[in-house]
Amino acid sequence: MTTASSLSRATPAPRRRDMTMLLLRIGAPLLIVLILAFVLLPVFVVTLASFNDKALLTFPPETWSWRWFIRAFTYPDFQQGFRASLIVMLWSSFIALGIGTALAIAVKRMAFPGKDLLQGILLSPLVIPHFTLGLGLLILVAQFDLDRGYGLVILCHVMLVLPFVMRSVYVSMENLDERLEQAAASLGASPLRVMFTITLPLLGPGLFGGWLFAAIMSFSEFTASLFVTTQMTQTLPVSMYNYVREFADPTLAALSVVYIAVTATLLAFANYFLGLGKVLNIEDGH
């Protein structure tokens, strides 16, 4: 009698667990869908608004046209801003790649006083607002009467994207099998040859990933660039900001769609041909 009553009292617990698991199976995907819809809704609205034929941002469009995409590609300030962004992006991403790779290897392989402090300083742009860095550089060059040319903009962008390169290369270093380097050294290879024939090729996915994210961040950087650029060196995001102060047509919506499409294409390229896990060297390539 006691055993039967105890069993009857014990049966609701598994049922509650089954009900909880069922709710999680249904609720978790639904929650993810709702979050994605919330995030992508502005993209959807901007994309449709960019095809509006009228010179006002209205949604949904009454008539459809490509005219604002044509204007986005032919507007002189956007063309100049694109060239400036391309110059700054290429210089800053490759400089950050070289410096970040060297620093990541040094932090991983070497022990020296102030190592943790150095890491904190180098990674500080991840937590410090970008406008603070841009304003600080502006005050610095004004104090010493320095030229606000491409060098200043490139320096600013290198400081901002350097943490992304360092983290990408450092993750690859964590997954690097040091026995391969030791085997090459035991066969008589010099440290320099080991570096260029073993270490760097194995770090290739991490190097590419660091450069890719640095390039995307540099090309899209606005907050700090607003303080350090001039009329001759203004990047595309700064040109877009100046444009929206004067016009209210869907040109920026069209240009934003191009931005999103190009960025998504680059990330899809990296994911399809290398795999985002391989880019960071965190998954087995076999």
Distance between the termini: 60 Å
Coarse shape: globular
* Biggest β-sheet description: none
- Domain tally: 2
Please provide the count of β strands.
0
Residues in helix, %: over 70%
Secondary-structure-derived class: mainly alpha
CATH architecture of the largest domain: Orthogonal Bundle
Order of helices and strands: HHHHHHHHHHHHHH
Proportion of strand residues: under 5%
Q: Whole-number radius of gyration?
A: 26 Å
**CATH homologous superfamily designation of the largest domain:** MetI-like
Mean pLDDT: 83
The CATH class of the largest domain turns out to be Mainly Alpha
- What CATH calls the topology of the largest domain is MetI-like fold
Domain ABC transmembrane type-1: 82-270
Membrane topology: Multi-pass membrane protein
Family: Belongs to the binding-protein-dependent transport system permease family.
Transmembrane segments: 22-51, 84-105, 117-144, 150-171, 183-204, 251-274
Walk me through this protein's architecture.
- This protein is mainly α and 286 residues long.
- It folds into two domains: 2-49; 76-279, Orthogonal Bundle (MetI-like fold), CATH 1.10.3720.
- It is built from 14 helices and no strands.
- Helix 3 (67-74) packs across helix 13 (251-273).
- The protein is globular, with a radius of gyration of 26 Å.
Question: What's this, in brief?
Answer:
With 286 residues, this protein is an all-alpha fold. It has helices at 2-10, 12-49, 67-74, 76-109, 115-123, 130-143, 150-174, 178-186, 191-202, 204-220, 225-228, 236-244, 251-273, 276-279.
Annotate the secondary structure layout.
Blueprint: H1 2-10, H2 12-49, H3 67-74, H4 76-109, H5 115-123, H6 130-143, H7 150-174, H8 178-186, H9 191-202, H10 204-220, H11 225-228, H12 236-244, H13 251-273, H14 276-279
